[in-house]
Amino acid sequence: MKKLTSGILLVVMSSSFIVANAQQTKPSDTLKTQEIEGVVVTALGIKREKKSLGYSSQTLDAEKVNSVPTNNFINNLSGKVAGMEIKNNGNFGGSSNIVLRGTKSITGDNQALIVLDGVPIISGNLNSSDASRGRDGFDFGNATADIDPNNIESINVLKGAAATALYGSMAANGAVIITTKKGKKSKSLGLTLNSTVSVGEIDRSTFPKYQKQYGAGYSGEDSFFNEDVNGDGTVDILAPTGDDASYGAAFNPNLMVYQWNSFVPGNPNFGKATPWVAAKNDPSKFFQKSLSFVNSFNLNGGDESNTYNLTFTNNYETGILPNSRLNKNMLSGNYSRKFNDKFTARTFLTFNDQTTVGRNSVGYGDNIMTGFRQWWPINVDILELRDEFFRTNQNYTWNMNAPLDGDLSAAFWNNPYWDRYKNYSSDDKTRLIAGAELSYDVTDKFNILGRATIDYTNSKQEIRKAVGSHAEEFGLAQADETSGYWVFDDNLVRQTYDIIGRYNLNISDKFNAIFVGGGQFFDQHQRSMENSTTGGLIIPDLYTIGNSRAYFPPIEGNIRGQKAGIYAQASFDFDKFLFLEGTIRNDTSSALPKANNNYTYYSLGSSFVFSELLKSSWLNFGKVRLSYAEVGNDMPFGRSGFFSNRGTVNGTPMADISTTYVDFNNLKPERQKSWEVGLETSMFKRRVTLDLSLYKTNTSDLLFSVPQSPSTAYSFSLINAGETENKGIEVSLGIVPLKSTDFQWDINLNWARNRNIVKSLNQGRENLQLASFQETSLNATIGQPYGTFRGTGFVYDSNGNKVVDDDGYYLVASDKVLGNIQPDWIGGVYNTFRYKNISLGFLIDVRQGGSVYSLDQSYGGLTGIYEYSAGLNDLGNPIRNTLENGGGVILTGVKQDGTPNDIRIDASYAGGAFGTDAGVPQEAFVYDASYVKLREAKLSYSLPSDLLRNTFIKGMTLSLLGQNLWIIHKNLPDADPEAGTSSGNIQGFQSGVMPTTRIYSFNVKLDF
Amino acid sequence: MRKIFSILTIGSLTILTGCVNGDEDFNNNQSQPYEVPSELLFTNAQKELMDQMETPSVNLNVFRFFQHYLATTIYRNDARFNFTGTRKVPDNMWLALYTDVLGNLNETKKVIAGEVKPTATSQAAWEKQQANKLAIVNLLEIYTYQVLVDSFGNVPYTEAAKPESIVLPKYDDAKTIYENLISRLNTIVATLDSGYSSFETGDNIYNGDVGEWIIFANSLKLKIGINLADVNPTLAKQTVESAYASGVMLTNAENSLFKYDATSPNFNRLYAEVIASNRNDFVAEEGIVDVMNDLNDPRRPFYFTEVSGGGYVGGTVGLTNTYSANSHIGDALLPASKPGLLFDAAEVNFYLAEAAARGYTVGSSAQQYYQNAIERSMQQWGVSSAAIATYLANPNVVYSAANWKQKIGQQAWIAMYNRGFESWNFYRRLDYPVLTAPNAIPAADGKVPTRLTYPINEQTVNGANWSTASSAIGGDKLSTKVFWDVN
């Protein structure tokens, strides 16, 4: 295989090569065409005319990219690119999911490749697999947050494999090509200052609305303890502080009850009973206003031989959770020098240093949000908990084990302020991407470019648990610990070397050919150490591994990888209206076994600009394009399936087999085959532009750790598992309904629909379980879309009514398909109005369909937190009264004989009628994840130049911005359907998710 | 010039593609082992087995709720036998036994097969030693499969633990598995040779003492054989008698103890779940407390704590119970380094008592073994001989051949307080004591479960085989009986 490709290269390269020159003299109408379509940056940084491209791409300029200040610029792309699904989980400094054209591979890497000035950079998330799978941990963000949006000139999103064939397997899921600002010769100083201040608050519709009728307990009216608390001989009422639920006694202001605060020494209510009422401040008051400052300086300039661009940005923000902050400094720049007509050199750098404190926990365990959404007693005042923490600096919690016996320790939940101020996470990250390139025009038709880049990341993540905390699973041994320290150090270096040659044949006006050939090599080395204390801290407040009571071995990593690729591309251009292109690439990767580590693939594309032949007045531009591409794909570096060190027992060392069975030498690369057809037109004096794509992508030999029956001795097998198919449509429509000298109204609309089906699975399997949650599992089943929820469901009669049994409880069907995380379609509409110097734009982001499972609603139903579990029933009595007292509910549905249900069930205790513990099928907690959101709005005023004429200032713009302003529509109660635990393939499950923050910003931009 | 350029370009391109390192282990994580010695895997398997059999964690082991030993304070699900909701006990137990125990035992055998004889050892001695090791590993495998069969019924056996070729293992017929286990045990007893060594390190139960393992093997044969008493009396009698004849565990000195640490994280599981976690999840259950109170049983101070005001009070399984109002797990069970008990003499003596009552020839009378069993149990806790004698004289304790099932059933139940699985086996076989399930979920049909339902996960990842097995056993329900539980 290699020999063949070398042979082709030999043929291609042995002729004289000349540099490709995109600027050529043309007749006037094609010049117009060029203006319409423009030049875009494609793979490898090669500039091409968009009309010559046989595949779909969409460009966003700096305005759109940096429209609102955000920690992770990728979030600004949501809704602006057809078919690009950006999912920001709402976690402070958290990661974002970037998926183009649906989930193709079931392994962890469906994310689009991020390319910075021609260099693919490491962009994944750094989260533990537990966090990525919905259990505990923290979301430590992903590496696109390291790129400064203030330094971006434009982004071109290449959506399919044809577009990215030159990048090889890394870009099988599409690529986001980022072009940074380059120096330009100009008369002005070239200094830009950009400063933004933002304030945020929670969107109340994404946080629980608590019922205000019942307080702490699990057993309804029997929840109180009747004990003589104050020793006066009479029996008092004591609230069950150990009960983390609100299914207790009904509130009654005349009832005096000893509560948690009665037992805290120094509390104003110490020793006193207080009225049994709903607290004045529920957990929504826990959140504070977030604050953010982004200040950026950009210096840009040059002359005939030198150009430079330098940006420095500082981003400081505090979050909505107490004790959360991040500080990020970014320095990026490039400098290029033209030595003579033939030689140009460029050097570039991106440096980023970020410190973050107090990220929110994600997932079920040890997560304050889980407490607020699932296990909260409504008589407890959150601000009183705050005051007690700050007064005492101790973990006085509402959830005391046995206060009457003097045991004030936490049964399950710490004081949430203790958790925020004492048990917080922190992390430091430094990233450096630097490189140099040299371009040599051998002749005016042949150019050679050589480039070397280094991408270096150093990060450290820490989690603390202070002495005095409640015991939870913690650390490497995952034993219950009451204190501890966990640290993860990671060092990752990647060196990339490129050599690219381009030859522009330039035969005649009517026919041109451009040949590109090149090679890429990269070497990657990752060293990591994950360590934690075991058995608790010896000295409180000293967070070091040395301060551990017992020992458990650290998890050390040392993984290397290398990839080499050679490729060639031939592009033919017939009279500027018919374009043909072919690419071929061969990759070798050390991630695959030697027998299968080399794979070759190709692509073919064509585009036909029919408007050149039609020449009509209303059709400015029209093109159809067709392409076919194949890509091979390897796995992440680092062979899995090793044994793990399990420490010692009785002085004897132990080792454990892996949870995944790996028959490494039988693995082969994945292969993706995709077809794409598209239409691009521009009509009515460019007042209407349309880009339409249809595609079909089949990925076979998917590399995946497939869950299997543990009776095989392993929970997973890493194999080439099967095949998925993605089919879809993408539409990008631009309309200018109104246009005059002073006023213009633009509408940009993006819409996409992707259908993903699991076509086949190997080894006779029918179902792949992708994740198993506390309730339900996420699956990929043959014939079903990827990401199906399975669990218990309702039993329906032939008319679609839910059936109840003879006791009035729903009949439960096991192992049913309950929903799917894939949306029916996603889209966005961006409206911009421009009047003279003022512009107003707003983005509405829409998702239709797809499901989300809410563990919050399920457990919150059991514990009686939400309003639907309180209130009155059909008889006008409180639902939670006992049946003798006219309480209870009649579930909607029919009895087994088909008649409407009239059997009342007892809802007077936790788990009686609500939540899965009451026998409610999990299907009840699968919600439609559709939403319509006002994602972004911006009002800008650019000061007119005559105002600034006599000042130093060349330009000044003031803007008011808003983000997440309004969830216009959603079906999921009490939470944002987009909220989740992490980026990655495991989505659609919610437990203890953060509320959404609504952000208001003010921005000033000055050009000197 | 151009030629030079072409050559240079082609040259660098060729170099580039040849640059990817071709070493076999280049792609390995250089800080992790892809091979380990057999001893490390063996100790890990032992620990995982011991953890699973003794832990009170409601995620893993719920037999103490079946047997009315413990009740819960707040979370009632598991005590009501709801295993398909949030805590999927069958799933967790299946996972622990198949992957953590059997997976590691299987790998241990593979590594042993590849071990190289040290130069100082003779070939004959080496072969004997390796045979001893394999036999011991197989013993724990058999032990584990019995637990699986007794808990679920038909389970994967012949097709299990073959990930290289079988990913959808079929479930074997339970009766056939039992017969195979017995035949394997016969081979093992014949193979084990106490004249030679076995594991020099890594055996955290018997330290490589082959003589002790022979006793373990015979005792295990007895334990499996006695279960067949009602369904295949011939095989049962033959198995039990031959096991006894070879020598079983009769005194506490021969108990199978797994040594835990005094420090985190590998301390005793009761310590971990009750003390280290600082949770008040459990209270004693009135079933056992009331019976032991009636008999003035001297083991009570070890089994339970007293309530304030003195005496022992139990809660009700399946309901919420107030922690402070009831007795809790006794301090004697809670030291961090308390060894785990995988097999004990009291248990074996009760099997022999039952065997004798059924007319098998086991060297002594049912009454003698019955008394020995109670003695062994009391001696484990350090009860004085005087107190033991008083207890044995109690007319409600005295053995009665007419009521042998009730007598053995009740005393075995009391003795097996911290050994829920073994207790459950006695209960299912003898049908005494009479245990109720007043707060069980509807799916349990109002009874103490006679098996665990298959893991929910199996329906998703091994659906066809699960379905076949469910039909074969008469329905995947808590109330379906395992093949030897015929009445």
Question: Could you explain the architecture of this structure?
Answer:
The complex is a heterodimer of chains A (1008) and B (487). Chain A is mainly β. Chain A contains 10 helices and 55 strands. In chain A, a hairpin with a 2-residue loop joins strand 6 and strand 7 (119-121). Helices cover 50% and strands 3% of the residues of chain B. In chain B, helix 2 (38-54) packs antiparallel against helix 4. By secondary structure, chain B is mainly alpha-helical. At the A-B interface, helix 1, strand 26, strand 27, strand 28 and strand 29 of A face helix 1, helix 2, helix 4, strand 2 and helix 9 of B.
What are the salient characteristics of this protein?
heterodimer, A: 10 helices, 55 strands, B: 487 residues, two-stranded antiparallel sheet
Structure summary:
The complex is a heterodimer of chains A (1008) and B (487). With 1008 residues, chain A is mainly beta.
